[in-house]
Write a structure and sequence with these properties.
about 170 residues; alpha/beta; Rossmann fold; six-stranded parallel beta sheet; about 35% helix; about 15% strand
C-alpha cells in the first residue's frame, strides 16, 4: 500500500508543470483535480495563473479534463468556464471516474497522468487505476474538521519539499 500512496512526480503547483516535462515523460494528457488544485475549495473562480497555464498546455497539444469527487452543480460551471470536459462524482480513489476519463480522452493509460493535491484520493486513485500521479501541494490548507483529520492522516505520506520538480529543471 505504501507505494500506492507515493506520487510519481511532485510539483509545488499545477502551473509549474510544463509541456516539456510532460513530453519528456511521455505524458500526452492530464486528468486534473479541481478543489485545491485549480482553485481553493468550493471557489467558483480559478486561480489567477490557471487560464494562462491551460492555454500553454493546449497550444502544446496536451489534452486535459477535470475529474472531481464533487457534484455536477459544482463541477460543470467551473469546467465550462475553463473550456474543459469533466467527470463529476468521480468516486476517487476507486477506478470508475478514471475509466470514464480515459474513455473521454480516448487515450491509453501509459500516456495519461493524474494531477491532484490529496494522497488518499488523487495519488491512491491513480496508483490503483494504473496511471502516473502528479502531486501538487494544496493551494490552501482547509480548516474544516474532516479536512484537518484527512490532512493529519496524510502527513506520513506527504512528499518532502526536496522532491519538488523545479520549474527551471523541467524546462
Amino acid at each position: 500500500m505504501g507505494l500506492l500512496l507515493r506520487p510519481d512526480y511532485v510539483f509545488q503547483s499545477v502551473s509549474d508543470i510544463t509541456p516539456e516535462f510532460l513530453r519528456g515523460e511521455g505524458i500526452a494528457a492530464l486528468i486534473l483535480d479541481l478543489d485545491n488544485t485549480l482553485t481553493t475549495h468550493n471557489n467558483p473562480i480559478p486561480r489567477e495563473d490557471i487560464s494562462l497555464w491551460l492555454d500553454c498546455m493546449r497550444a502544446e497539444g496536451i489534452r486535459m479534463l477535470i475529474l472531481s469527487n464533487n457534484h455536477y452543480d459544482r463541477v460543470k460551471p467551473f469546467s465550462e468556464s475553463l473550456g474543459l470536459d469533466f467527470v463529476c462524482d468521480g468516486g476517487k480513489p476507486l477506478g470508475s471516474g478514471y475509466k470514464r476519463c480515459l474513455k473521454l480522452l480516448d487515450m491509453d493509460k501509459g500516456n495519461v497522468a493524474s494531477v491532484g493535491d490529496q494522497i488518499y484520493t488523487d495519488v491512491l486513485g491513480s496508483g490503483l487505476f494504473g496511471i502516473r500521479s502528479i502531486f501538487t501541494f494544496p493551494i490552501a490548507w482547509e480548516t474544516g474538521f474532516w479536512f484537518r483529520v484527512k490532512r493529519f492522516l496524510e502527513k506520513p505520506f506527504l512528499p518532502k519539499k526536496s522532491r519538488i520538480i523545479a520549474k527551471e529543471a523541467s524546462k
